Write the structure tokens for this entry.
Amino acid sequence: MSRRERLRAETTREIKAIALRQLADAGPGAISLRGIAREMGMTARAIYSYFPTRDDLITELISGIAASLAEALESASNAVPENDPGGRLLAWGGALREWALQHPESFRLFYGHPVPATGRPRTAPWTARRAACAVS
């Protein structure tokens, strides 16, 4: 990775971390690109080069959450022998609970609080949810 790519990736991670903190503090309606830019010392225009809209940021947050959850569930399920489906299901359920307790703001965004509508259809998060729920 070039220096520029590393800085962009680091800034993107910081934007997402602040968005998750805003979510934890006041719910999904509180996620604001302008507020994130202000907190980071960026101009509002600069942050839009990372995420053109608030929906794009929320969609990326949900996709990351789905990947994290799917990884946790798959790891737990795979730790139990395949010939023990009941044990695999219990491991999966325990992993879901543990993940939810460790990531309460992510759990609320993924399963709980609806995101206030901004006029755009929200198909990507449903796709991410299906991917996370398809873990066997």
Q: What stands out?
A: The first helix runs from residue 3 to 26. The chain has seven helices and no strands.
